[in-house]
Amino acid sequence: MQTLFNRFVKSLNQNDRKNTCISYKTDVKIFLDKVIAIKNPKTENELCDILDGAKRENILFVTDTIEEIFEKNNYKISTKNRKLASLKCFFDFLTSYKLIKESPLVIKNYKDKKDYSEESYEEYVVRTSQEQKEFLTLEEMKNLLDSMEAHDKDWITPIRKMSLYRDMFILSLMYTTGARIGEVLNIKNFDMEKTEYGTMINIRSHKCSRKIGAKRIGVGQRVQRYLEIYLALREQNMTTQNEYLIVSKTGKKIDEKTFRDNLNKYLKWANITKHITPHSQRHAFQTVASSLGVSERMIKIIGGWTLGSISNRYTHTTDKMLDKEKIKISSFL
Q1: Closest Cα to residue 177, out of 215, 139, 229?
Q2: What backbone phi and psi angles, to 5 degrees, belong to 21?
């Protein structure tokens, strides 16, 4: 993998200015590290096959990966444009050396834009951008969870049962709150808080904490049931302690790739053929909550799209009312 990256860096050094090379190397490395963490390719050929825009599933994967990186770091429009230019350069390198057949990324009119404005970012186009992003409808999500529950048989081992309810908790929590997969996997045990209205989870700020304060999400009724069963099974079967809430059958914090692999298995159980990723749950929350009459302002607050710390804007009494409203909204599943 490093050889491919070094070849790309060498091609930059021949044609680009020093500062451009530095930023391009950084942007592409962040992207490749994310891809490798998710897909775990064993060879450079496998990596190139994952990035080849000739396959529709690869285009969707690249799109989701870029969006997750952008959302996690809350980049400004100008920063997004610069990073897209870096990635376009990388994909152009891959196609020019016939390492991939087609680039999954197209930026229209990029060179015509001297000022990286809101409009120039909106013209960034992934080849299938006009297609509707796929996510699970409320009925499909319920069917998926029902099919997972149906696999809770008397004969399955307690450890497998723990993993099943753990993943049902993760899926339903993301679907009902718009939480990112990285945020959920990084929840620690002490981030959970019992209130008079139900369980609240404090999502601690990450890299972009200077721009976005820690958010607070509510645990809906069905999600709470999965959480309680998972915690009981974890208590019974784990001999080692871990500070993280979400752990594997060996007691270690699970990674995103493990959950993605499990998700693909669960989708097959429910005979769902849509291209669904963990990030799809975030899109689903926006759409489903809006269709159920939740205000745009509340959707932004719950999903963390509102900048700034909510606690700085509301009194303690209003925060309590906000907790109650969040748990009520998150119980739609």
Answers
A1: 215
A2: -60, -45
Contact 310, 301 (CB under 8 A): yes
Phi, psi of 203 (to 5 degrees): -85, 110
Asked if residue 194 lies in contact with residue 304, where contact means CB atoms within 8 angstroms, the answer is no
- Continuous H helices in 203-279: 221-237, 256-269
Token pair belonging to 33: 């590290």
Rounded-to-5 percentages of helix, strand, coil across the chain: 60, 5, 35
Looking at the chain, the whole-number percentage of residues with pLDDT higher than 70 is 82
Residues 148/167, Cβ–Cβ less than 8 Å = yes
- Give the position of tokens 């304060």: 213
Rounded CA-CA distance 181/260 in Å is 10
Which stretch of DSSP H or E encloses residue 107?
Answer: strand 105-107
Tell me the HSE value of 221 on the side-chain side, using a 13 A CA sphere.
5
pLDDT in tens, 176-213: 999 988 889 999 999 999 999 999 999 875 443 333 34
| Average confidence (pLDDT) over 70-78 | 77
